[in-house]
């Protein structure tokens, strides 16, 4: 009995040792995450609540929240993000429906070509827009030469609409990819049945295609909204007059004015907004996953 008890004790100890050794593998990732993500966030939070004398205070954050520059930047950020997302949803939906249900020669190539925008830096699209729509761009140069004008007639690029157009161009593929994936999984017999029963294309679109694609549309739209809220390169590169967003205001406060407390306070609010949108995106993805699982079962 003593021998059996001893062997049992050794077995339990060995298993416990293996569990401890296995658990030790989580330490390096935790150290990396703490060093690269947690520690910088802690520094941002600490600086946001530090006044000019180095004391902990709510005054810097309250001053930021009460400033006109912050209010204007917040409004600009939300307006541009919502307008860009809405434009991406409309354009991405139309293109996805055409590519999925109205086949034409070269449709696969065109779809892949639009997809490549995902891999391009945002400033390249903005640079291309500057060459086309800028004050010295192709369109303005042609119009000034043809109409003998002294000033460039096309100036929308240097406004909020120019930012929206650039963001729409960059982020529309983020709407198209989940939509086209959802359309590829649709049962085409539903469309055929609806058509055979006398349903017009508009009826089939509203009652068959759109309901099936709605979860993917919500997922793509929420991701697009998250990305446009945090867009920095397009706004900075276009240099739209009077268009200051939260990321650009953070850059201005930190780099140009060296007001790190204000910059960190705005960054905290921007992070909170981004995390809220990311949580919304994850909830939509989770709901889509449950709906797909219910269909499979």
Structural domain tally: 2
Rg computed from alpha carbons, rounded to a whole number of angstroms? 27 Å
Order of helices and strands: HHHHHHHHHHHHH
Residue ranges: pLDDT <50 for 5 or more in a row?
A: 293-297
N-C termini distance:
52 Å
Q: What portion of residues belong to β-strands? A: under 5%
Q: Helical stretch count?
A: 13
CATH superfamily of the largest domain: MetI-like
Mean pLDDT: 79
Sheet bearing the most strands, described? none
Protein traits:
297 residues; MetI-like fold; globular
Structure, explained:
The structure is a single chain. The protein is mostly helical and 297 residues long. The protein folds into 2 domains: 1-48; 57-296, MetI-like (MetI-like fold, Orthogonal Bundle). It is 79% helix and 0% strand. It is built from 13 helices and no strands. The longest helix has 37 residues, at 260-296.
Ordered list of secondary-structure elements with their pairings:
Elements lengths: L1 H22 L3 H22 L10 H8 L1 H34 L5 H9 L6 H12 L4 H10 L12 H25 L3 H9 L4 H29 L3 H6 L7 H11 L3 H37 L1
Helix pairs in contact: 2-13, 3-13, 4-8, 4-10, 6-8, 8-10, 9-10, 10-13, 12-13
Please sum up the structure shown.
By secondary structure, the chain is mainly alpha-helical. The protein contains 13 helices and no strands.
């Amino acid at each position: 009995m003593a021998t059996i008890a001893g062997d049992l004790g050794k077995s339990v100890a060995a298993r416990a040792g293996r569990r401890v050794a296995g658990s030790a593998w989580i330490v390096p990732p935790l150290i990396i995450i703490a060093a690269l993500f947690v520690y910088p966030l802690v520094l941002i939070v600490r600086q946001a609540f530090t006044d000019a004398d180095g004391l902990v205070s709510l005054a810097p954050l309250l001053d930021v929240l009460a400033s006109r520059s912050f209010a204007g930047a917040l409004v600009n950020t939300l307006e541009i993000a919502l307008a860009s997302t809405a434009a991406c949803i409309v354009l991405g939906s139309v293109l996805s429906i055409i590519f999925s249900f109205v086949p034409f020669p070269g449709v696969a190539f065109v779809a892949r070509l639009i997809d490549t925008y995902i891999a391009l830096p945002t400033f390249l699209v903005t640079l291309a827009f500057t060459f086309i729509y800028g004050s010295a761009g192709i369109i303005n140069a042609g119009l000034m030469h043809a109409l003998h004008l002294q000033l460039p007639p096309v100036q929308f690029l240097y406004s909020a609409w120019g930012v929206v157009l650039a963001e729409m161009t960059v982020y529309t593929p983020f709407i198209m990819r989940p939509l086209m994936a959802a359309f590829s999984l649709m049962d085409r017999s539903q469309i055929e049945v609806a058509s055979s029963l006398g349903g017009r294309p508009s009826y089939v679109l509203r009652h068959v295609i759109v309901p099936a694609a709605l979860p993917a549309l919500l997922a793509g739209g929420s991701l697009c909204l998250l990305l446009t809220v945090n867009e920095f390169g397009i706004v900075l590169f276009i240099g739209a007059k009077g268009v200051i967003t939260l990321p650009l205001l953070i850059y201005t406060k930190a780099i140009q004015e060296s007001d790190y407390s204000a910059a960190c306070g705005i960054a905290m609010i921007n992070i909170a907004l981004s995390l809220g949108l990311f949580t919304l995106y994850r909830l939509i993805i989770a709901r889509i996953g449950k709906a797909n699982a219910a269909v499979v079962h």
